[in-house]
Design a protein that fits this description.
- It is a single chain.
- A hairpin with a 5-residue loop joins strand 13 and strand 14.
- The relative contact order is 0.15.
- The protein is flat and about 65 Å long.
- The model has no long low-confidence stretch (mean pLDDT 93).
- Helix 4 runs parallel beside helix 5, helix 6 crosses helix 7 and helix 7 crosses helix 10.
- The two termini are 32 Å apart.
- With 351 residues, it is an alpha+beta fold.
- 36% of the residues lie in helices and 25% in strands.
Length: 351
Amino acid sequence: MSEKFSDEPTRLAQTIVPLFARQAGAFAPVSFPDGGRVELTTGADAQDDCAVFRLAGSHDLVVGTDYVRGPKFRLYEMGYLDEYDLGYYLVAANLSDIAAMGAKPIGLLSVVRYPAEMDDALFSLVMRGIRDACAAFGCFNVGGDIGGAERLILSASALGVCPAGKALLRSGAKPGDVVCLTAPTGPAGAAMAYLRSGVPDLVIDSLLPSLLANWKRPVARVGEGLVLGASGVVTSCQDTSDGLKATLLGIAESSGVGIDVDERSIPVPKAVAAVAAHVDVEPLSLVMGDSVDFELVFTVSPGQVDDLAEALSFHRIGVVTEKREVVLTGENGERTDLPGKAWRHQGDGKT
């Protein structure tokens, strides 16, 4: 099959419009108990300059933007991710931020800039990844920008809505609150650590697909975020896109509190423990470090955490303290700094 290189208008007409067709009619209106309502009246398929949402009632618009490296993703360069995976990851990274705010996604604006050597098939692969991830998390890619660049560049802005004044923030944690985690962290970081080690292991090779799933099909915890937002008992929330350690430090700093993490309560997946042994590091350094797992960390008052547990499964991993320090309490009662490397958005880092 020969390669085909179309210009931007042709790619818009032949790829974008068919992939993202009939959005306005398919959009499920978002309704609020007070009569508020959100509808999509003009989507990406209309080929107008902007998408149009009709907003009625009292609610807040939640907006976030995240850039994703295209071919500079290390696992892409190593052949473990393809263009579809990059498009899918772009959506999950952006919608995870919406989930952390307890909001419902209503749309995504994507920027896909591509090099001259990217043919129509690879361009379509990126866009299909974006489309399918949006479908998985319950929203549409309602527009954005495509065009040429020196290499593949991916960025997006996610839109969400929540009842007025009810967005979950990082800054509300209070001493005595229970610190909770939606699901174990570490698989994405473990996959990277194993593959970067360059030392093969037959057992870990068999576990690699499950570890790579956090890169190839990451899950934005949209449903969990909606439950947390609707509960009315969550005092703070943040996703773990920069790693569990960075998230705990972020909530503590924003809230002006400390956090005491119970080492015995931190879930360690068996595959992560296996990789840790293979590369000779402590398992918690992978669980806490810059692993891109898109889980949610949130805080709840101790008197309400049991009720929330009836509606949502999560791990209780620590407690908020008045003393402004973030520590790990071991089985022997000794307190130490959190293990692992906190992601700081510099250097070549996690990707």
